[in-house]
Amino acid sequence: MLRRPATVLQITADDIADYEGRRETAVSAQQQQREAQASAQAQAQAQENSEAQAQEMEGVRDAAPDQQAEAVRRSRDERIGVKAKRGA
Predict the structure, then answer these.
(1) What is the C-alpha to C-alpha distance for residues 77 and 81, in angstroms, rounded to an integer?
(2) Where is the composition biased (Low complexity) (predicted)?
């Protein structure tokens, strides 16, 4: 059986620069995609919150003045995370 000499690969500085450039481009594209998704999610969440707040305020407008004040106070407390006191 005949043996062939081993194939010698030669990697040049240009080859390395090309590889690094392709890799950097791919990483940059992935990062931009993640940022775009995060931005889209934040916008969707903000829109949902504003719609929920608008619906909440719709009920406040139709209520009596005392009920309006209570509803506004309750809404504000919910937004800032204050729990309602029980037994009051």
Answers:
(1) 6
(2) 28-56
Nearest to 50 by CA among 62, 38, 42: 42
Asked whether the beta carbons of 75 and 56 are under 8 A apart, the reply is yes
Q: Is 0.85 topped by the overall pTM? A: no
* CA dist., res. 59 & res. 53, Å (int): 10
Mean pLDDT by 10 residues, the chain (88 residues): 85 95 96 94 89 74 70 84 63
Burial class (CB in 10 A: 0-12, 13-18, 19+), 51: exposed
Q: Is residue 3 part of a domain?
A: no
Count of domains for the chain = 1
Kindly state whether residue 85 falls inside one of the protein's structural domains.
no
